[in-house]
Amino acid sequence: MAALARLWQHERMQEAHAPLTAKLIGSLYTEAMLLADEARSYFDMSGRSDRDSLDPYDRVGFSCESLKVTTRLMHVIAWLLTQRAVESGELSRSQARRPARRLGDAPDSDEALLARLPESALGLIHASRDLYARVKRLDEAGGLGPEAQASPARSLISRLERSL
After folding, report:
1. Contact 122/111 with Cβ under 8 angstroms?
2. Which CATH number do you get for residue 123?
3. In angstroms, rounded to a whole number, what is the distance separating the alpha carbons of residues 69 and 109?
4. Cα–Cα distances in angstroms (integers) from residue 31 to residues 37, 60, 105, 132, in the given order
5. How confident is the model at residue 7 (pLDDT cuts 50, 70, 90)?
6. Average pLDDT over residues 132-136
7. pLDDT value of residue 59
8. Domain for residue 137, yes or no?
């Protein structure tokens, strides 16, 4: 298990230094969508019994943390869709760098509360925080760089690939 964790950590570090490409955008988008679906399923269904087992104050905190997970993931997904639009030529790089299209701020979790939450909830909270932090590093690095910006021909090929 430790070897797997080190491999996962190594991949995440490589990702942070890799140029933003269509493949990386697609990979992060898939990860974000799967995590969003898992979070929705947990917080809307199976997590109810976990929430109900908490004291009233922690139940409110549990609900707040579920909203924070959703907020982080929606910011990530919106940012990735913006990067896809740049890559496909639908948006210019300067349009994507406008403040409204940058990665939105995500609320911090209450660390004291996290110690009292169920493991299933913690896994989702930590996964959303990790994904958000990785995408934030990419956003701070400027998103698609000039070398990754698509030419009109590459843009057409990319759109054809996505439609097939």
Report:
1. no
2. 1.10.8.930
3. 9
4. 10, 28, 19, 11
5. very low
6. 95
7. 95
8. yes
Q: Residues 134, 15: contact at Cβ < 8 Å?
A: yes
CA dist 74 and 149 (Å) reads 24
13 assigned to some structural domain: no
Contacts of 21 (CB under 8 A, 6+ apart): 148
Q: Is residue 14, in this structure, part of any structural domain at all?
A: no
| CA–CA dist 158, 164 (Å, integer) | 10
> In whole angstroms, what is the distance from residue 125 CA to residue 122 CA?
5
Count of residues making up the chain: 164
CA distance 109 to 71: 12
Counting the structural domains of the chain, the total is: 1
Q: What burial class does residue 63 get, using C-beta atoms within 10 Å of its C-beta: 0-12 exposed, 13-18 middle, 19+ buried? A: middle
Share of the chain above pLDDT 70, in %: 79
Structural domain for 143, as ranges: 21-163
> Is residue 122 included in any domain, yes or no?
yes
Distance CA 74, CA 118 (A): 23
- Torsion (CA) 119, 38, 33, 128 in degrees, nearest 10: -20
